[in-house]
Amino acid sequence: MRTTEAAATHFRFGHLTWQTEEGTQVQFVFQGAFRRNGYSGSGTDRFPVTGDVIQERIGGTRLCFGDGVCTGTLYFKVTAYDPVNNWIIGLGGMAAGEESILHVYPSTGVYVPYSESCCRISRILSPNAHINNPDEDYRIETQVTLKTP
């Protein structure tokens, strides 16, 4: 039996922000960057370019809201790309083309929404060799504090 090492080193960075919309309704903006050649797209090289939408299935990226509810695998609308350095940046949504995520919390309080998956870029992947926890899992989180008006 032959085994091979998994090469899921797709994650570059993530940024999660939020704002209260009304009551306990919160709008999240999840910006993520991933290895470009891990996804199909409309570029001449068949990889994603600005405007394309990917579903982030390599790591199964989703957002958990800190109240026991999580999204399914998120879609990211590509907002920038770099073919030379092999990355795309996009805004996450629960459906193709969405650029934010809306969630209604059950009550006021403090919540810790997060996204976590595998794997950060590898130490050996040129030209983007990573020195901080290469090939390891990652977690992005923020704190949402909802107060009674």
Q: SSE layout and pairings?
A:
Layout: E1 11-22, E2 25-35, E3 53-55, E4 75-82, E5 87-93, E6 101-104, E7 109-111, E8 114-118, E9 137-141, E10 144-146
Antiparallel strand pairs: 1-2, 2-5, 2-6, 3-4, 4-5, 7-10, 8-9
The geometry reads as globular
The total beta strand count reads 10
Task: Indicate the radius of gyration in whole angstroms.
Answer: 17 Å
Mean pLDDT: 88
Structural notes for this entry:
With 149 residues, this protein is mostly beta strands. The protein has one domain. It is 0% helix and 41% strand. It contains no helices and ten strands. Strands 1, 2, 3, 4, 5 and 6 form a six-stranded antiparallel sheet that branches. Strands 7-10 form a two-stranded antiparallel ribbon. Strand 4 (75-82) and strand 5 form a beta hairpin. It is globular. The chain starts with 10 loop residues before the first strand and ends with a strand.
Question: Which properties best describe this structure?
Answer:
0% helix; six-stranded antiparallel β-sheet; mainly beta; 41% strand; globular
Give a concise summary.
By secondary structure, the chain is mainly β. Helix content is 0%, strand content 41%.
